[in-house]
Amino acid sequence: MRQNNFKVIGLTGGIATGKSTVSNIITRKGYKVIDADKIARDVLQKGMPAYKEIIRCFGDEILCQDKNIDRKKLGSMIFKEELLRKKLNDIVHPYVFKTIKKLIVEYGHSEKYVFVDVPLLIEEIDNFKKHEIYFDEIWLVYTDERTQLDRLIIRDALSEEGGFERIKSQMPIELKREYATKIINNIGNLKALEEQMEKIIDEIM
Question: What is the DSSP letter of 2?
Fold first, then answer.
């Protein structure tokens, strides 16, 4: 799915780098942002096609009392088990990619830029291509690992060891820099980030 009249910009980062904050700034500026995480959460909802497949694969023990999927329980189950994580992705991803593709086409009718917010965009870039979803640019929200760790410990009330383990479960942020067409430096405070985003958005208008 190549498009000539509008640009698709992938927005990504590492855990606790501030990607969601950047996404919110872009949304406030009036741009369309497709949130891959939200789509993934939606396809887990009771009654959705992926719901029954996930229960068949992982069992009733992942359900809450109201029969909704307990995302925390499911997350802890797959966190250290690559095979289980792959099984979940194989179920969820087709629905996610289909929805993202549909929204890109829909927004592209009226927008010059469509943003797709994907935490693991670089890790999944080949899968996006398989589903004929291509990015004109990749914007990376960057912070150094020490700042990333400090923020994660505070945000999720983790020990240093626990925070470090989560960071190491992802592709190193320094390696992600090599794939980015634009680096959004989020080492400073919120004001500095907002000022930086003002300049970046002014450049594309």
Answer: -
